[in-house]
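Input sequence (389 aa), recorded before submission:
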Amino acid sequence: MIKRVVLFVLDSVGIGGLPDAESFGDINVNTLKSIATATENFNIPNMIALGLGHIEGVDYIPKAEKPLGAYGRSLEASNGKDTTTGHWEIAGLYIEHPFKTYPNGFPKHIIDAFEAKTGRKVLCNQPASGTVVLDELGDEHVRTGNPIVYTSADSVFQIAAHEEVIPLDELYDMCQFSRDLLRGEDQVARVIARPFIGTSGNYQRTSNRRDYSLKPFDKTVLDYAKEAGLHVKAVGKIVDIYDGEGITEDVHTKDNMDGVDQTLNYLKQDFEGILFTNLVDFDAKYGHRRDVEGYQKSLEEVDARFPELFAAMKPTDLMIILADHGNDPGYKGSDHTREYIPIMIYGEQVKAGVDIGTRKTFADVAATVSDILGIKATPYGTSFKKEIL
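Predicted structure, token format:
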């Protein structure tokens, strides 16, 4: 019997374009392939051992002689390629209508309301790379005290501010006001606080980022686990993505290694339910910045931690390692890419070497978690419990 399921999200580690990727502007995209083929020295022995190279289409990764886990891949059924859409679908929802985006910046009535409320003028107001915008407008922000407001191809309203110019509490208040403002016809999936520090030519984002998401429009597997009296512990930005819904305890993280450490801390505790971790550095630090080398090193660092994670698991634990979308660092632009996600399943009770094939929706993960824990299931998704246990 499985008493605890660990959902371990390698944020943006896609494994190849979906059949409809071109309609999202993504042609021949493959996050993992761009990383794996950039050098001959790509070293991820633990994910290889789990069966990563056996997943359909992942012919650029070596195959394990005897995979230690079950494996497969999944299509994204929902209409999108963003963090919120991916995670909500993983938790059992289907997003038919994509969240609103602002390719030309935010309209005047939104900016006017923001400036009237904050008493500060807006810099930028257009799609931009989060690091480039600091290089271009960081000095002006420091000089004027005006926040940098920008968006991307995703449904986001982002506010960048130097921590010594606009204190964190004030930045967070700005974000909360913006979250309340950007609803209805102006709705965006997330408002994001993007604090930074440093001096001219050397500005750096800090770990004090906060995401202000919409509440999910329906109950997820997390809600049903909580209602059943189980624990739902969240590591990283998970609590933000679901706006706290269905979460019983959470911890924010500084970086991927901290995310692994916090996951280990929870694994060592005695509880039943769900442990849900997101490692965001792959996406935020390397995917959007199209940093293939950095992405590769980061994946190797996390891969090296899997033996610790597996050693901390109890015989009644099961871990599902997956992604939420792609972000091909070898592709043009700076935005997410619509890709298949890998699924690798590990635990003492898992049938090693089982191929669960290509799932039709990320929601199969939610259905499987519900099936394993014996809780109410969401309307979407098909369980693969019987195939892996």
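Checked by second reader. The longest helix spans residues 130-144.
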